[in-house]
Structures are given as C-alpha cells and as structure tokens.
Design a protein that fits this description.
Layout lengths: L2 H22 L5 H23 L11 H11 L4 H9 L5 H31 L15 H17 L2 H26 L5 H7 L23
Helix pairs in contact: 1-2, 1-3, 2-5, 4-6, 5-6, 6-7
C-alpha cells in the first residue's frame, strides 16, 4: 500500500472522529463546533488535493504494518480535539477569531503553494523563485504549521503544542533540509537563498528581485 492511503484515512476520518467526541461527551458548545468546522474541512480539502494535484512524496509504497504505525503517529493530532471537547473549557471569542484567521491563512499558504509547485513541475522542472516561493522556500510547511497551531490554540493546552513541535522537529525540518540539498544543485540557488527564508518569509530583502529561473522547483 502507499503512504497516502494511511494519511488519507486519517484526514478523511477526522471530521467523524471529532463529531463522535462531541456526541460521547455531549459537548456541542461553540469551541467544538468551530474545531469541527476547521479540522474537518481541512481533512476533506486534503482528500480533494490528493485527487487534483497529489504530492509524489505520499506515493511511496510501504508495508502495511509500517503504514499502520504511521497512521497511529499522525493520530496524535487528535489529542487537541479530545482535550478541547472532554475538558469542556470554552475558548474566549478573541482566541476563536484568531484561530480561525490563522487557519484560513495556513490553508491558503499550504494548498496554494502545493498547487503552484505541482502545476509548475508538471510542465517544466527547475527552481521556483516566484509566487508563493518568492520569499519563503517552504511555504507549504509554513502553512501546515499555522493550521495545526490554530487547532492547538483552540485546545488551550500545552500538549498539542508539544506534539506539533515533535512533528516539526521529526518530519518538517528534516524534509526541508533534504529539499535544501536537492535545490543546491541549481546554480541560481545561492542567489535565491539570499532573498528567501527557509521557513519564515524574508520580507525585508533589498536587492535584485529578478530570478535567473522562475520555472519550477524540485
């Protein structure tokens, strides 16, 4: 089986898992409903993305036991809704508004940059230095971190933040560094690196914005 089958299973069942928690704990207050809308929609959008512009890193074949272990690991993301719903602590309205805003921004960055990368690479390989990637070399990871940070904010507990930090340190950062090594083979990468941040957009760069190659990115 492919890695994406286990990842998609988690994404697609998140809505039903959160709704089930709400039913078990009979908690239908504002916080759980907002969480259900944000995380549930994120999961369904992931499935749509996989159909429209799939990410090749999830196409890797893995043994079923390995996939099951991976599924259980990503289920750690369900700790946030469990804490929120079971504790019955209601997030303040300003916090809810901030979480929604951060989630919307994260979805835009994550799915928008993945779309740009997919359709650029589809027609020409190379180095992307424009659009979503003009000031940040890992806009998709920045968006994903913002999304899960919004979920952790709604839970109002330190544990989801620790879990997000674990995923960032164990998966996001290694993948970004691996990508850096791959992009370094392009002669124009050094110039691109000076005007873009690894994860945080370099917005105050002053210099020549003209890139030698704006065609694509590995």
């Amino acid at each position: 089986m492919k890695v994406k089958h286990f990842v998609n299973l988690h994404k697609g069942t998140t809505f039903f898992f959160v709704l089930g928690l709400m039913w078990v704990y009979q908690n239908f207050t504002l916080g759980p409903w907002v969480y259900l809308a944000l995380h549930g929609t994120y999961g369904f959008l992931w499935l749509l993305k996989d159909k429209i512009y799939p990410d090749k890193q999830w196409e890797q074949e893995v043994a079923v036991p390995v996939g099951v272990i991976g599924f259980l690991i990503v289920c750690l993301y369900w700790v946030a809704p469990f804490i929120l719903i079971s504790s019955r602590v209601e997030p303040a309205l300003p916090l809810v508004a901030l979480a929604i805003a951060m989630n919307v921004l994260g979805v835009f960055l994550h799915y928008g940059s993945d779309a740009q990368k997919y359709y650029t690479l589809k027609y020409k390989s190379g180095l992307i230095t424009e659009g979503f990637f003009a000031r940040c070399r890992n806009t998709n990871y920045l968006g994903e971190i913002a999304i899960y940070l919004s979920f952790a904010m709604l839970a109002m507990h330190w544990l989801p933040l620790v879990i997000l930090g674990g995923f960032a340190a164990g998966m996001f950062v290694p993948n970004m560094l691996k990508k850096e090594k791959s992009l370094a083979r392009y002669p124009e990468f050094e110039a691109y690196q000076t005007k873009s941040g690894l994860l945080i957009p370099k917005l105050l760069f002053v210099g020549n914005d003209q890139s030698a190659d704006t065609s694509a990115q590995a």
